[in-house]
Amino acid sequence: MDVGNEGGEQAIELEPDWADAIDGFCVFIELEKGRATLTVSSYESDLKQFGAFVQKRFKGITVLQVSSEEGAAWLRSLTGDDYAPSSLARKLSALKSFARFLVAERRRADDFTALLSAPKLIRHLPGTLNPDEVDRLLDAPSRHSAQGLRDRAIFEIMYSSGLRVSELCSLQLQDIDLDEGFMRVVAGKRDKDRMVPVGGAAIRAIEHYLAHARSQLVREKTGSTLFLSNRGGPLSRKTVWYWVKEYAKRAGIEKNVKPHLLRHSFATHLLSNGADLRVIQEMLGHADITTTEIYTKVESERLLDAHAQFHPRNRWVGDKKTED
């Protein structure tokens, strides 16, 4: 099993004890813990990177002998590789989960990560689109082609309901009740499904797509996936990512527009129009209200900017404020 170190080290084949322990851990968190496929894949990559690092820098140390010293050395080696604090925190989380797994499986008596701490996270405010930019983006796809009708429906539902790209791509025909204006969103974890409202504009766009476009994309082996690729299969996240950026360019939006920007805009615009934070939390599928509270800071920044720009007593003339 060849693995490469993301920090730039040459590919190295993991020893059987490392490979078997990591494989067993990944099976455990996927089947027993119900972790999302993307989480399992990320943790597997992180742990293979750690194993390769230990094998190369600390030759002869097995997975049962590794200590906090090797863990700390690995994390230090990554700090110069332009990893964001959130990425380093995820890698440490993977390592800690792995260590607890080894203890639970009685392969080790101690948690070798107990003394390791995560880097301090700097929370950046999420970017958003203003309502005019949202309108321009939603109006960019063609109204006269199957792909255009599909893409318009995709953008409408992402903005209407705050979906993640992975949630959008996994939507099935049976997940949406257009008559009631609700849909079931299947999150990464099996026990985290939620019901989310669908707005009127999104309902009309989906109805138009179903009536005039989806049948043109259906192929022999097409299943019940709602939004189909040009080949009749489920859309990939990469495809949605590409088209969001492409349509943003066509709409003349100069911001770095990504699919998640529609989710951020959904939450921010709801909050600015008086929606309760707990309701927004439920619709976004956040487990912790503190994750949703970041949008209150976005709204506060917007209000401060508006006050600084437009209030007559908050303007500057030269080095002094006006007294008018």
What does this structure look like?
This protein is mostly helical and 324 residues long. 53% of the residues lie in helices and 6% in strands. The protein has 14 helices and seven strands. The strands form three sheets. It has a three-stranded antiparallel sheet with strand order 3-4-5. The protein has a two-stranded antiparallel ribbon with strand order 1-2. It is globular.
Q: Per CATH, what is the topology of the largest domain?
A: hpI Integrase, Chain A
- The CATH architecture designation of the largest domain is Orthogonal Bundle
How far the N terminus sits from the C terminus, by CA atoms, comes to 73 Å
Contiguous low-pLDDT stretches (5 residues minimum) are: 1-10, 316-324
Q: Structural class, from secondary structure content?
A: mainly alpha
The domain tally reads 2
Count of beta strands: 7
